[in-house]
Amino acid sequence: AAAAVEPQPTPVASLPAAPDDIEDPADAPRPGTDLTAFPDADPQRYAMRTPRADAATSALTLFPEQTGQRAPRGPAVARTGFRGFINSITGGVFKIGPGAEEAAANAEVARRQGDERVIRQATWSRAVSVLVANRKGGVGKTPTSLILGGVLGSIRGGSVAVVEVTDDPGALGYRAEGQPTRGLGELVRDRDEIHSAGQLAGYTAPQTSFASVVASVGPRRELTGDDVIGVSRLIDEYYAMRVMDSGNQPSSSAFRGAIEVTDVLVVPVLNAGDAVLEAVALLDFLRELGGHAAMLADNAIIIRLHDGRPEDPAVVARIDRILDDARPAQIFTVPYDAHIAERGPISLASLDPEVARAFTAATAGVVQRLAHAVR
Predict the structure, then answer these.
(1) 308's torsion region: left (phi>0), alpha (psi -120 to 50) or beta?
(2) Based on the domain organization, do 102 and 188 belong to the same domain?
(3) 214 near 184, Cβ under 8 Å?
(4) Do 103 and 229 fall within a single domain?
(5) Which segments of the chain have a pLDDT < 70?
(6) Domain of 192?
(7) Which of 140, 179, 273, 333 could form an SS bridge with 268, CB 3.0 to 4.6 Å?
(8) For the chain, where are the alpha helices, taking DSSP H only?
């Protein structure tokens, strides 16, 4: 039989395409690059940085209602505007198709529903974890952690913990909703005495997104790797997903502990040279460690944030090339959001709709990575 033609990844406009005459040094795709487990994902939503990654399609269409690949329902019919009005008053006799604006809106709704379905329907044989990290401070690690965890919690109906794993108290508790009386420091102290979900809940800040935040509520001692591993194991007994907000020292004990209990790495960056160079340095550092750490780097997801400051096109183009050379698994872009920039408590309901959609797409990408990292 003739060999099947391998589908090519969908290029992203912001990143330069690799020249055709340059050979990929890898002879086989890296682990976790096959994204066919969730056919709902629209390839246009993801910046696939693995040349041999399969397109987000699947032959598993026996039950389309489970995969999100709906059976054809005939030509689309306009429901809004003048076209929709004509269809309405004629009882659908003419079946006029939607105009460009309505068609684009319908496509966006379908993409969002596909992303949400990917997030909602994913299951694993154990609790799974995501580490949000960058050696550079002030690049959006804490907002990214809260929003990723919030999107997961809101779509999946809870069972998501967002956990501080910084060496010293970080900003997670300040950026989260609520003012709990107990937090991470107390949980580290009391973890051997906690034997129920109700007990553990007393150390969290419940969010309107249905996620739960475990952060410092006051001074605490420096976090160690054993602390991170112990708290993570406890949380994993009662939560299906764990998102960790890390500090700026990848050589620290706490960060090394977080690496040990991480399934997928997410690296937020701004369109600034220092933020991106530090992100690439982190990936290089993890690859030098080898083993599990290197696998996290090879399958990392980068989220490009915008903080509202002017961006030099030449710098942005240079950043495109740097990120392309770093070969992360996926890249997502999130536009500026005034609510995030206020530097106060973050609520999903207060995000700009476009930002919420972008983070939902990024979260779907994270879930896909988890699907291939954890069997």
Answers:
(1) left
(2) no
(3) yes
(4) no
(5) 1-75, 78-79, 81-87, 89-97, 99, 101-106
(6) 125-373
(7) 140
(8) 64-67, 81-89, 100-121, 141-156, 172-175, 184-190, 197-201, 225-236, 253-260, 273-289, 291-298, 313-326, 338-341, 353-373
Predicted pLDDT of residue 320: 93
**Residue 85, pLDDT score:** 60
Question: Which H or E run contains 265?
Answer: strand 264-270
Instruction: Confirm whether 43 is domain-assigned.
Output: no
303: its two tokens: 């989220």
Q: What is the DSSP letter of 242?
A: E
Do 193 and 102 fall within a single domain? Answer: no
Q: Find the CATH number of the domain harbouring 134.
A: 3.40.50.300
Q: What does the pLDDT read at residue 111?
A: 83
Residue pair 137/109 in contact by the 8 Å Cβ criterion: no
Integer Cα distance of 167 and 253 in angstroms: 8
As for how many domains the chain has, the answer is 2
Same domain, 202 and 83: no
pLDDT digits (tens, 9 = 90+) for 305-322: 998 888 889 999 999 999
> Are 280 and 297 in a shared domain?
yes
CA geometry: angle 363, 175, 279, nearest 5 deg: 55
What Rg, from alpha-carbon coordinates, does the chain have? Answer: 22
Place of tokens 């340059």: 22
Residues 284 and 202 reside in one and the same domain: yes
Q: How far apart are CA 70 and CA 324, in angstroms?
A: 34
User: 218 and 92 share a domain?
Assistant: no
